[in-house]
Amino acid sequence: MRLANIWNLGVKELRGLLRDPMLLVLIVYAFTFSIHTAAKAMPETLNKASIAIVDEDRSALSARIADAFYPPYFMPPEIISAAEMDARMDAGLDTFALDIPPDFQRDLLAGDVPQIQLNVDATRMTQAFTGMGYIQQIVNAEVNEYLDRHRSETELNVGLVLRARFNPQLDQMWFGAISNVIMSITMLGIVLTGAALIREREHGTVEHLLVMPVSASEIMISKLWSMGLVVLLASAFSIVVVVEGVLQVPIPGSLALFLFGTVLQLFAVTAMGIWLATMAGSMPQFGLLLVITFLPMQVLSGTLTPRESMPDIIQYIMLAAPNTHFAILAQAVLFRGAGLAVVWPQLLALFGIGAVMFALALRRFRAFLR
After folding, report:
1. Is beta strand 117-120 parallel, antiparallel or unpaired with respect to 51-55?
2. What are the b/e assignments for 76-86, b being 16+ CB within 10 Å?
3. From the DSSP assignment, how many helices (H) and strands (E) are in the chain?
4. Which element (helix H / strand E) includes 321?
5. What radius of gyration do the chain's Cα atoms show?
6. What is the residue range of 329's domain?
7. Taking Cα atoms as reference points, which of 34, 13, 356, 50 lies closest to residue 200?
8. Would you state the pLDDT for residue 154?
9. Residues 331, 295 share a domain
10. Which pairing describes strands 96-100 and 117-120: parallel, antiparallel, or unpaired?
């Protein structure tokens, strides 16, 4: 192989990327707005949910229940009438509507079991499922404390002292930001290299390359280093500017070690992008292959949910995917400040998986050129 050929072909790929505005927009969005938005709206967190209360009792207990809903979990509740409730939910103004019936406090003090109606806009799935549990706990707590005539405190027989490491405030945003950076690195690594090869075929420039004194390995390596470089620079910008700067997420580990792991991850996923592109006949087909490949890798890798919660067979199978090792490496370095002595098994695994993927992709790419 000639390094000059690899360099010049890689520069050609970068120029081709600059002439593709849609891919440029995708890169910018994936490493900026997407990470910021996803980190601010983690599925496990209820944040400023809109709630309305129909207070038909007008008692001290109903007022106490209404005052129990406050930020950051809920917006200050809107006191509305029963006639307004359905119209407001149809218009999407309220996610929850709590209807307190007449004589609720009197029936409760008399020993009856009055019922409160909770209406939920289930189209907002994230807040709906999480918020129902919050509202039930809040209402039950306020009713029990009202009946006991004092604010009850749970007394434990054992004094439990809790210390949260690496994320003392248990802020879901910290985890969401890093997880989405990992997802963007993997997705863009596959998309950019696959799109580069399909673009060559659609524009007819593959035939031009075949008559030039360049080998298949030179063509493939040029696509890997050029597209990998773009994703590497974008990920470094995202960590420094978006995660640390805008979102104020502290990074205790070594950024250089994380970027080195990112290089090995890109080595594997860019080769995977070439392999998928040789199987697809067009960009729509490549998109379908990307969906059935990327989504299982992402969901089962431990990036979104802990690997320990998955069946053992899934954990063992996913050790063959680069995402699994990259997620372990990124979380260890960026969350816990781990060094090379801790993450070297993941680096070695990424290099091994990347070498296998490169060999398979090169073999398929040569057959594709023939």
Report:
1. unpaired
2. ebbebeeeebe
3. 15, 4
4. none
5. 27
6. 3-40+171-369
7. 13
8. 58
9. yes
10. antiparallel
Contact present, 194 and 277 (Cβ < 8 Å): yes
Burial 3-40 (b: 16+ CB within 10 A, else e): eebbeebbebbeebbeeeeebeebbeebbbebbbebbe
pTM over 0.90: no
**Helix or strand or coil: residue 54?**
strand
Nearest CA among 175, 169, 120, 132 for reference residue 46? 132
Three-state DSSP at 299 gives: helix
Shared domain for 365 and 217, answered yes or no, is yes
How many domains is the chain built from? Answer: 2
Neighbours of 169 (CB within 10 A): 8
How high is the mean pLDDT in each 10-residue block of the chain (370 residues)?
A: 84 88 90 84 69 92 91 88 89 90 90 90 76 89 82 65 76 81 91 86 73 82 91 93 88 91 94 89 85 86 80 89 91 88 93 94 84
State whether 191 and 338 are in the same domain: yes
Q: Residue 292, Cα to own-chain centre: how many angstroms? A: 17
Nearest residue to 10 via CA among 213, 219, 212, 194: 219
Report the 10 Å Cβ neighbour count for 275.
24
Query: Measured between alpha carbons, how far is residue 137 from residues 129, 251, 342 in Å?
Result: 13, 35, 42
Helix (H, G, I), strand (E, B) or coil at 187: helix
Residue with tokens 């209820």: 46
Please return the burial class of 181, using the count of CB atoms within 10 Å of its CB with bins 0-12, 13-18 and 19+.
buried
